[in-house]
Amino acid sequence: MRDHAARLARLLETHPDVVHVEGATEALIKKDELLVLGAHADAVHESARRWVDSREDFADLGVARLRLRADAGVDAAGLVHDLRGGAGAHRRVSVTPNHVLRGAPDMTGGPFGPPAPAAQLAAPAAGPETGRRAVVGILDTGIDPHPWFTGSKWYGACTPDEYEVLDPSADWDLDSESGHGTFIAGVVLQQAPNAYLRVERVLGTDGVADELELLRGLARIQARAAAAADRLDVVNLSLGCFTFDDRPSPVLSHAVAHLARHSVIVAAAGNDGSDRPYWPAALKDVTAVAALAAEDGDGPERASFSNYGWWVDAAAPGDKVSSCFLTHGRENGEDFHGYATWSGTSFAAPYVAGRIAALMADKDMSAHDAVRQLLDPAGTHIPDLGVVVSANGH
């Protein structure tokens, strides 16, 4: 399902509550839903009252959801445009359609291409914990048991809520992003074997979520860390979306800015081969990571599928990456025995997250100091890709 039109058709078929916003600023949004910062909810609700069917306030998130009447015949993106004051207006109210996010996708697909079975990899060798312990949060499809994890303290703290739900259709064929979170956890551990991972499931195995689900996931993972009197040093988001107007979602921006006061946030730049801002990676409080092509001796260069642009901060290996995966047989005879090779900016982001965690432990520094050192402008820099972070780079 690599064809754009076919992928889009399948997504809309399996998610009838998703609407495709067409045009130059193509996007996916939830049908008849608006999200509003709590402080602006009353004003927006009053302005849109004739079209609103119901309102839900999420006090813990500081957000309200307005559901529009199905028979109102109003376009959610168009209504948001008007509520904000029209083209070029400074936002008077923080309101947005509820954008649909995917696991570091192109517009309607998962990571660039399907995973391929790989030979067994040596487990990352954790050393003695002599320095600072780095805590890395992974909001993704969840986690699956794997020999790399099962003896660790962090995996022992995982509950069924964090486990990946495999093969929900019971057809024995993997969904497009089954194993995505497990693979990402392995990429982090390859760079930082001593990292303590906190896993939060926000994506289904087809890689689909929406802004509200991500906000809930961010709130849950912060609450779990706080309950354990623990930090959340680095947060990896191998997911994202385009927005209907190429501007940042105000509700997601607000949540990320709050989290960024204490945590470094690393996000995948997306796999559309485009310079359109991709969110949340393009937010100023986020380290956006593009993918480098597999090295061929000519120096680092962008993987053909990777997004790029002024908003990208770093580039890391994302082409033909090998990591831990599921053990699963498929109808087409492609059997996975716990390891896979996969490509996408989904896997460049956790490479950087892992390198930040490793610097924290090795040099006993904070996450914010570690990311500043890692992305030192004196390192190898590629226009529209940022600082190169790789074994042979910075």
Q: Quote the distance from N terminus to C terminus.
A: 36 Å
Q: Give the CATH architecture of the largest domain.
A: 3-Layer(aba) Sandwich
How many separate structural domains? 2
Shape: globular
**Helix-strand string:** HEEHEEHEEEHHEEHEHEEEEEHHEE
> What is the radius of gyration?
20 Å
Main β sheet profile: 8 strands, mixed
As an assembly, this protein is single chain
Beta strand %? 15-25%
Name the CATH class of the largest domain.
Answer: Alpha Beta
Strand-helix topology:
Elements lengths: L3 H11 L3 E4 L5 E11 L3 H7 L4 E7 L4 E6 L7 H8 L11 E8 L13 E2 L17 E6 L12 H4 L23 H12 L4 E6 L6 E3 H17 L6 E4 L12 H11 L3 E5 L17 E7 L21 E4 L3 E8 L7 E7 L2 H19 L3 H8 L6 E2 L3 E3 L6
Parallel strand pairs: 7-8, 7-10, 10-11, 11-12, 12-13, 13-17
Antiparallel strand pairs: 1-2, 2-4, 2-5, 3-4, 5-9, 6-15, 14-15, 16-17
Helix pairs in contact: 5-8, 6-7, 8-9
Question: Can you tell me about this structure?
Answer:
It comes from Catenulispora subtropica. InterPro entries: Peptidase_S8/S53_dom, Peptidase_S8/S53_dom_sf, Peptidase_S8_Asp-AS, Peptidase_S8_Ser-AS, Peptidase_S8_subtilisin-like, Peptidase_S8_subtilisin-rel. The active site is at 140 (charge relay system), 180 (charge relay system), 346 (charge relay system). Residues 131-375 form the Peptidase S8/S53 domain. Pfam families: Peptidase_S8. The chain is an alpha/beta fold and 394 residues long. The protein has 2 domains: 4-101; 116-388, Rossmann fold, CATH 3.40.50.200. It is 25% helix and 24% strand. The chain is built from 9 helices and 17 strands. The strands form 3 sheets. The protein has an 8-stranded mixed beta sheet, with helices on both faces. Helix 5 packs parallel to helix 8 (345-363). It is globular, with a radius of gyration of 20 Å. The model has no long low-confidence stretch (mean pLDDT 91).
